[in-house]
Amino acid sequence: MSPIYPISTIAQVHEFMGFPPPKHPLVSVINLKDFPQDMNYGDDDRYRFELYMVSLKDGATGSMGYGRNSYDFTNGTMVFSKPNQVLASESKEIAPDAKGWVLLFHPDLIRRSELGKNIANYSYFSYDVHEALHLSEDEKETLTDLVRKIEKEYQGLIDKHSQKLIVSNIELILDYCTRYYDRQFYVRTNHNQDLISKFEALLKSYYDSNKPQELGVPSVTYCGEQLNMSPNYLSDLLKKETGKNAKDHIYSYIIDKAKSRLLGTTDSISGIAYDLGFEYPQHFSKLFKQKTGTSPVQYRSLN
Q1: Over 90: is that where the pLDDT of 146 sits?
Q2: What pTM, to 2 d.p., does this model score?
Q3: For the domain with range 4-187, which CATH number is right: 1.10.3470, 2.60.120, 2.40.128, 2.60.40?
């Protein structure tokens, strides 16, 4: 296994790519057409970016490594990365007139802002690379205009307003991307319904086996892995289609199973809890009361 090289500053990125020092220490926009064509990546080189990255692949084709996976990107693909994710560039072909860009910003840029408090709400930073965002021409133009405003701001004279304006434009970019992901979920409704059916079948299969006793209550991460999706993407997809996220679906399934066992058998509460994957019966009872308003004992006696 090749080593993972840390990239922790904007200056390091510029130095690595043979660019002049950055105009701003915490943010930079790199245009795809300016990427060096002769950069020598090792075959297995991997890089841990301690920066946020938002990139538009427009005018570039190829593949990139992202975590343990590889993804073939095409024009109009948006990819997001948060600090401590591992990336590797495997191959690329960039057109001389490429319009794409990479926006990089350090966590310190947003740390004291509202965006810094809310950045975790932009869940697509944790999506797998094959769950990338695909943009229309109008959407690409909207985001590129905002990126150009950021670029213009830090290339001019830095004053007390600069950081606020830069952060505001980054937040606007992320809000637009949230809208575009909602559109992408919407137009893929038929495909999403198939995935929801697979998710429901996965839960049924899980509880028809010995896995609850072996592995416990199924986690969102486990379900995502089985469906080849990141946990966040699975939750967001379910939320958009059904109004409930993945954890809510899992808990609803468990509560339905528990109700059937409580009313259809004389099994003990502890036995039902263990069969459903709970290590401690009190955790099952707490969840049941939270979701139904009554304890398992009360539910059985009232029905």
Answers
A1: yes
A2: 0.82
A3: 2.60.120
What pLDDT, on a 0 to 100 scale, did the predictor assign at position 287?
A: 97
What integer pLDDT is reported at residue 178 of this predicted model?
97
Domain 190-302: top CATH class = mainly alpha
User: Which residues of the chain does CATH 1.10.10.60 include?
Assistant: 190-302
What is the DSSP track for the chain? ---EEEE-SHHHHHHHHTPPPPSSSSEEEEEGGGS-TT----TT-EEEE-SEEEEEESSEEEEEEETTEEEEE-TTEEEEE-TTEEEEEEEEEE-TT---EEEEE-HHHHTTSHHHHHGGG-GGGGS-GGG-EE--HHHHHHHHHHHHHHHHHHHS---TTHHHHHHHHHHHHHHHHHHHHHHHHHHTHHHHHHHHHHHHHHHHHHHTSSHHHHH-SPPHHHHHHHTT--HHHHHHHHHHHHSS-HHHHHHHHHHHHHHHHHHH----HHHHHHHTT-SSHHHHHHHHHHHHSS-HHHHHHH-
